[in-house]
Amino acid sequence: MSEMRERVARALAHAAGGKMIGPGRCRAMQEFGWHGDGKHLELYAEAHWKDFENDAGFALSAMREPTEAMVDKPDIDCSDQSYVHSAQISEIWRVMIDEALK
C-alpha cells in the first residue's frame, strides 16, 4: 500500500471515530473511553485505519482525473527556461494519483 493511501485511510478512520453513535458519545469514546485531549480519536484511528483501506482507494480513484479548473490555468513557469503545459499537468497528476493508488 502506498504512503498516500495509508494517509487517506488514517484520516478516514479518524473522522469515523468522531461520528456520534448516541447522545454525547462517538465511536472512539465507546471503544476507548473519553480523553479530553482527543487521544480517543487517535487510538481509534490507529486501531481501525486498515478497515478504511478500500475507502481510501475509492477516494484517490475519484481524484484520478484532474478537474478542468485544475488544468485550465496559464502554463506554470517551472524555471527560467522550462514551462509545463496544461496537457503535461494532467498527465503528471494522473501518474501521481496512480502511484498513490498502489
Summarize the helices and strands and which ones pair or pack.
Layout lengths: L2 H15 L2 E3 L2 E2 H6 L6 H10 L4 H10 L5 H4 L4 E2 L5 E2 L1 H15 L2
Antiparallel strand pairs: 1-2, 3-4
Helix pairs in contact: 1-3, 1-4
Poorly predicted ranges: none
Outline: elongated
Measured between the Cα atoms of the first and last residue, the distance is 5 Å
- Helix fraction, binned, reads 55-70%
Order of helical and strand elements: HEEHHHHEEH
Overall structural domain count: 2
Number of helices: 6
Oligomer: single chain
The share of residues in extended strands comes to 5-15%
β-strand number: 4
Instruction: Specify Rg, calculated over alpha carbons.
Output: 19 Å
Structural class: mainly alpha
> How would you characterize the largest beta sheet?
2 strands, antiparallel
* Average of pLDDT: 85
Strand order of the largest sheet: 1-2
Would you give an account of this structure?
The protein is elongated. The protein has helices spanning 3-17, 27-32, 39-48, 53-62, 68-71, 86-100; strands spanning 20-22, 25-26, 76-77, 83-84. Helix content is 59%, strand content 9%. The chain has 2 domains: 1-62, no CATH class; 65-102, no CATH class. It has 102 residues and is mainly alpha-helical. Strand 3 and strand 4 form a beta hairpin.
